[in-house]
Amino acid sequence: MASTAYSRPSKPPGPAAGDRSGPRLAKELGRIEPKKLGIGLVAGCCFALLTYLSFARLFAIYSPVFDSSSSMVLKNMPPATTTVPGTATGALPVEEQKEVRDPEADPHMPNLPEVTEKDQQEEATATKPAGGAIITEAKITCDENGVDEGFPYARPPVCELAGDIRVSPKEKTMYFVNPSGAGPFDSNGEKKIRPFARKDDFLLPGVVEVTIKSVSSAAAAPRCTRRHDVPVVVFSVAGYTDNFFHDNTDVLIPLFLTTAHLQGEVQLLVTNYKPWWVRKFTPLLRKLSNYDVIDFGKDDEVHCFRAGHLGMYRDRDLIISPHPTRNPRNYSMVDYNRFLRRAFNLPRDAPAVLGEETSAKPQMLIIERKGTRKLLNLPEVSALCEALGFAVTVAEADADVRVFAEKVNAADVLLAVHGAGLTNQIFLPTGAVLVQIVPWGKMDWMATNFYGQPARDMRLRYVEYYVSEEETTLKDKYPRDHYVFKDPMHIHAQGWPAIAEIIMKQDVMVNMTRFKPFLLQALNELQD
Ligand SMILES: *[C@@H]1O[C@H](CO)[C@@H](O)[C@H](O)[C@H]1NC(C)=O
Ligand SMILES: *[C@@H]1O[C@H](CO)[C@@H](O)[C@H](O)[C@H]1NC(C)=O
What we know:
There is one protein chain. The chain has 17 helices and 15 strands. By secondary structure, it is of the alpha/beta class. The strands form 2 sheets. Strands 1, 2, 3, 4, 5, 6, 7, 8, 9 and 10 form a 10-stranded mixed sheet that branches. A hairpin with a 4-residue loop joins β2 and β3. α2 crosses α16 (496-503) and α8 crosses α9 (333-343). One 2-acetamido-2-deoxy-beta-D-glucopyranose binds at residues 322, 329-330. One 2-acetamido-2-deoxy-beta-D-glucopyranose is lined by residues 470, 511, 513-514. Its main location: Golgi. The chain crosses the membrane at residues 37-62. Residues 272-435 form the Glycosyltransferase 61 catalytic domain. Pfam families: Glyco_transf_61 (PF04577).
């Protein structure tokens, strides 16, 4: 009920949206009518919940990270900074492939395996897939009705399959040999899913739809042209990619949750393929999969697997919790950090400990924002930090993930104004300190759920500083008796356009007298 109170724009972010620029997108968002907005709110007794339910979802479209390059929000094009010539096919360097290209050449790999009792016994007794002769009983489980009240986009549909699975990208179909016909199929024996790990009505029309087609026998499925001894994951990188927050929440963490236990023995098939995106995150994709990513949009093979997923498991943004089916291995954000450190060879697992005889200064990294939510007196803040004993580096989040990951990992304290740049906390050593400056406008929910709680979950020390009405440029735009100051929740009640226009566009100038104790707290956290 809450989500319907806030209508999303109905225009899908399809190819036509490909040449939109960020500022224009922001403007368009600004123009979106907050349809029927008041109705749900007035009716609801749980005002705050309704508001946040919706804007948690709406917020994300705007959470810009890299300012100028965040113009890629709905773009299917690489940002200028990461354009690599000759990426038309996006092919990564070819590594040894495990699949057998010619099924006839492999006597252990019958072309049209049928499920037999003998084979099932083999499956039951086998501890490892050996030589590809094992046939698994057909099994499909789809998880698609999960609901997370606070995070309506957090339960995307995902199907897990085992058996004889034949993926034909050019038909956008996964044939599933399923003699019993059992499973979540429609009357045509089909199950259609848009495999993007964010259940977001605004985005989904732009996500390639993939069909799982249940067929009664292998003869009814296309012949395998390429066999894989490892499971497959078919997923989309459409959406708000190239916003670092969304790269992580909508693709990389879901991929981690879905595949980390396979230790690289998994084949990734990517729909809505973006060569620059795959290139940008190659170190992570390589850590998750030992095989070249396959572009689902440009592939004529019929790939055969014995297990796999269509879609990915996902949890709340940068917050992940144990779950019996979605996260059965109880991966935590600390595990994700460890994974990132290994993928990028980041050296530091722990911050510098002060108070020892070492004379090394604690390192502070300040992430600078150049578009909205600028820290106007950054030089003053930086000077105070130096005076307090920090060695300060100021940097804008870099398009080169590895370079920036190294910078962040070298820091003991990361300081930034609320924004997707704070996502870089994932590269901090465990135990380091995150300082979030929260702009004016009752941003508690976003500050906590997007960055504060994740910091705690990653076992970082977390310090948050809420600016007062004296420290925001909103005071130059609105009189003090305006609801912007008297009742900021009224901004939220108007829905996303107002939040984007008012709250997200302010700059801040922190009061040094007020801010100093928070810096001392950060310093103090490092003494423990
Ligand atoms: C995951 O956590 C649950 C409790 O939340 C526990 O019952 C289960 O045994 C854990 N699983 C693993 C693999 O540690
Ligand atoms: C800065 O904060 C201090 C402590 O809250 C306060 O006394 C002072 O008036 C503030 N300065 C400005 C310019 O608002």
